[in-house]
Write a structure and sequence with these properties.
Strand content: 15-25%
Strand order of the largest sheet: 4-5-6-3-9-12-15
Oligomer: single chain
Number of helices: 10
Number of strands: 15
Family: Belongs to the PC-esterase family. TBL subfamily.
Distance between the termini: 120 Å
Organism: Dioscorea cayennensis subsp. rotundata (White Guinea yam)
Helix content: 25-40%
Keywords: Golgi apparatus, Membrane, Signal-anchor, Transmembrane, Transmembrane helix
GO molecular function: xylan O-acetyltransferase activity
Main location: Golgi
Length: about 450
């Protein structure tokens, strides 16, 4: 009985040990299979990677480049650098010191408007005159007045816009005066719209005062400045430029800062809102929305016109106003250009410039299908780097002499100054645009 009990006691124990042994063997088998699989996977991956690498080097260099799998080599790096060096983007660069004297001064050109004539008005520093724009991968040639006049022979060139546009025109005329002085053949009573003629080249240059491109009116209450209202019609073009548009071979448009003014906005001769009018109970409309609609109407009219001049839109001109040391004091008294990392001006212009680019691209696509040449003179960024180029207090003659009320001008540009570079870029665009049509390069 004792033996049976012992046997009976141990039989279950032996069965349990058997099951454990079988489980252990099975587990080891699974581990072996898994380990073998992992080894095969790693071997296969390494083999494939080696095979791809071997295949890369077995392909021709041209096929490697086409598949974008060619490993970097010293030779390819040199070729890429050379390719980049050959790509010239006139708009990307920096201002570098220039020992050259400006192309003109207030003494050699008597057409500079007083509010832009910083030298004559007594600005003491002259460092702002000695910088030139250097694109990263090339050089921007200085303005060549003879090349411009020859290219514009028997042509008409219209500048449509505001006082910033005036600065561009007077810079151009002062530089052209080294070859020929124009005949002033027309001006309105305020000298806002003017016409000059170059008889030796049969070239006519027009300036049309149209600061909004769209129709506008002003009303006042017996001269009370606080009661002056500007009325902008978003759906009507300004006839001052549209009436003569068919006479122009080249058109440059430069508008912008006037849109900051307080204004009442119309569509279909009905008031739809206003901008900067806290005293009026009207819907407030953002300045960039107003600007966009004005550009949409104007550029679409140009792009779909039967008349097909060469049209250039110059981008927004930045303002460099900064707070001074005194309460409510505004200054722009810097004396050298910014480097890229030094820009700290909270300029609203980048929003407006974005609107310009977007609307220009839409219109240019329409114009291209209609045979209208349109280009963007994108001076915004390179001008943003020139906080030293504004008149500041020197928009008036010797502002600190006597007891004068000083007005700080951080919007317009001294002549000579950075605006002269705008004309260097304009010349390249005009010449290269004509070269594209003729199939040859004139640069």
């Amino acid at each position: 009985m004792a033996d049976e009990v012992m046997v009976g006691d141990h039989q279950p124990l032996l069965a349990k040990d058997g099951r454990s042994s079988i489980s252990l063997i099975f587990f080891k088998l699974i581990c072996i299979i898994f380990l073998a699989g992992a080894i095969c996977y790693l071997f296969d991956s390494n083999f494939n990677a080696w095979a791809v690498e071997a295949e890369q080097f077995s392909l021709s260099l041209e096929k490697q480049d086409a598949l974008n799998i060619r490993p970097p080599t010293k030779e390819s790096t040199v070729q890429e650098q050379q390719l980049k060096k050959e790509e010239c983007d006139l708009w990307v660069g920096e201002w570098i010191p220039s020992p050259a004297e400006p192309a003109y001064t207030n003494e050699t050109c008597n057409l500079i408007p007083p509010y832009l004539n910083c030298l004559n008005n007594g600005r003491p520093d002259t460092g702002y005159l000695h910088w030139r724009w250097k694109p990263n991968a090339c050089d921007l040639p200085p303005f060549d007045p003879l090349k411009f006049l020859n290219a514009m022979r028997d042509k008409s060139f219209a500048f449509i816009g505001d006082s910033i546009c005036h600065g561009l025109v007077f810079s151009l005329i002062c530089q052209l005066s080294k070859v020929e002085k124009p005949h002033d053949i027309y001006h309105d009573s305020a000298y806002n719209s003017r016409t000059w003629y170059y008889p030796s080249y049969n070239l006519t240059i027009y300036v049309i005062w149209a600061p909004y491109l769209i129709h506008y009116e002003t009303t006042d209450n017996h001269g009370d400045a606080s009661e002056i209202h500007l009325h902008l019609h978003l759906d009507i073009l300004d006839s001052k430029w549209t009436n003569e548009y068919n006479n122009y071979d080249y058109v440059v448009i430069s508008i912008g800062p006037h849109f900051y003014k307080s204004s009442i906005i119309y569509e279909n001769n009905q008031v739809i809102g206003c901008h900067y009018c806290p005293h009026l109970e009207l819907k407030k409309i953002a300045i960039d929305e107003i600007y966009r609609k004005a550009l949409q109407l104007s550029l679409k009219s140009i792009a779909t016109s039967k008349h097909k001049p060469f049209v250039i839109l110059k981008t927004w001109s930045p303002d460099h106003s900064e707070r001074g040391e005194l309460p409510n004091e505004i200054v722009c008294n810097r004396t050298r250009p910014f480097k890229e990392w030094e820009i700290n001006i909270g300029d609203h212009g980048f929003i407006m410039r974005r609107v310009e680019v977007e609307e220009f691209e839409k219109a240019a696509a329409i114009g291209a299908s209609n045979g209208v040449r349109m280009k963007l003179l994108d001076t915004y960024h390179l001008s943003l780097l020139r906080p030293d180029g504004h008149p500041g207090p020197y928009r008036t003659y010797h502002p600190f002499d006597g007891d004068k009320k000083i007005k700080i001008d951080c919007m317009h540009w001294c002549l000579p100054g950075p605006v002269d570079t705008w004309n260097e870029l304009l010349l390249q665009m005009v010449i290269s645009g004509d070269a594209d049509d003729s199939g040859s390069s004139l640069l």
